[in-house]
Sequence to fold (186 residues):
Amino acid sequence: MIGEDLENVTSYYDNGGHLLKALAYRDAYGNYRILAFGGNVHGPKRDSESYVSLHAYGFLQDHGGYLARWEIKDANGGPLCGLKMLTPLVDIIDAGDGQSLVMVPYWIDCDGLDPTEVKLIMVYKDRKYAIRGNLPNQEGDEITRTPGETFKELPAVVQKTALAYWERVEAAAKKAADRSNPNVAN
Fold:
């Protein structure tokens, strides 16, 4: 994305925020849309490579301008935690039914024995859905995956697509967290 569209999207990331990725796409009705994904590094966090907060926006082109249709935001939860972006996996994919499925994955790693939270927030037809899980930081804990309450409202083919994508997200988070054995803390 370049030019005026990029400038419009970038304006949403001020006060220390950074646009990390912007993707333009057309929805099933031919409408021009933009996914903007970014974060803020300013504030207390676990390490210099972490973010304090994440912000993603879905924009719809309307009469020469853009309307924000949805927003995803999260924070690291405190100075002992760091929000880690899985930017290469932020994408718009076919939901399996010809519709667009926006994928916004990330993880929150905290100092200590609490599990690492892994999240995949999805947007389908301008409605948000989630799969959340944990990676263990101590021996004996298990890897978890929990679809959000509204996840079961998605068509079966979209659920299947989302769960397959979750496997990629979980693998990327394990690799980024450098967990060679996911059942033992490093």
In short: The beta strands are 17-26, 32-40, 53-62, 65-75, 81-85, 91-94, 100-110, 116-124, 127-135, 144-147.
